[in-house]
């Protein structure tokens, strides 16, 4: 009788202890694997972010015009202000949209597309123009 009571109490406790030990081993293994992955990712160099805008030399090759030479109007779509007489303007080749010089250069240094129509500026546009008055 005492043996059966002892077995009735001992076997469930031993079984639960075995399950708990297996659970702890699995947690330990998962933690080790997670730490190894984190170390591997920190050792591998991050991909360099490609510069998507235009360089300063490419910006200088784009045409600078006066307000009278703007084809599509004299409102700058970047700052939403009028381009006044005497203010330098930048005319984008291909789409002929015009902007304040500083507004266009700020935008194009981060993006290589027109702010209005999203036309991509091809490399053929970066040839120096002899018609550039400024």
Describe the structure.
The protein is rod-shaped. It contains three helices and three strands. The protein has helices at about 1-45, 55-60, 100-110; strands spanning about 65, 90, 100. Strands 1-2-3 form a three-stranded antiparallel beta sheet. It is mainly alpha-helical and about 130 residues long. The protein folds into two domains: about 1-40; about 70-125, 2-Layer Sandwich (Herpes Virus-1), CATH 3.30.40. The longest helix is centred in the first third of the chain and has 42 residues, at about 1-45.
What attributes does this structure have?
134 residues; mainly alpha; Herpes Virus-1; 6% strand; rod-shaped
Draw up the topology in text.
Layout: H1 2-43, H2 56-61, E1 64-65, E2 89-91, E3 98-100, H3 101-108
Antiparallel strand pairs: 1-2, 2-3
């Amino acid at each position: 009788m005492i043996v059966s009571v002892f077995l009735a109490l001992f076997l469930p406790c031993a079984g639960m202890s075995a399950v708990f030990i297996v659970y702890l081993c699995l947690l330990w293994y998962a933690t080790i694997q997670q730490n190894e992955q984190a170390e591997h990712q920190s050792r591998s160099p991050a991909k360099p972010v490609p510069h998507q805008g235009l360089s300063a030399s490419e910006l200088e090759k784009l045409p600078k015009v006066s307000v009278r030479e703007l084809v599509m109007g004299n409102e700058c779509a970047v700052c939403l202000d009028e381009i006044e007489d005497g203010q330098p303007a930048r005319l984008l080749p291909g789409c002929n949209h015009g902007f304040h010089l500083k507004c266009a250069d700020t935008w194009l240094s981060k993006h290589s597309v027109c702010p209005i129509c999203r036309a991509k500026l091809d490399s053929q546009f970066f040839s120096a123009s002899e018609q550039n008055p400024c």
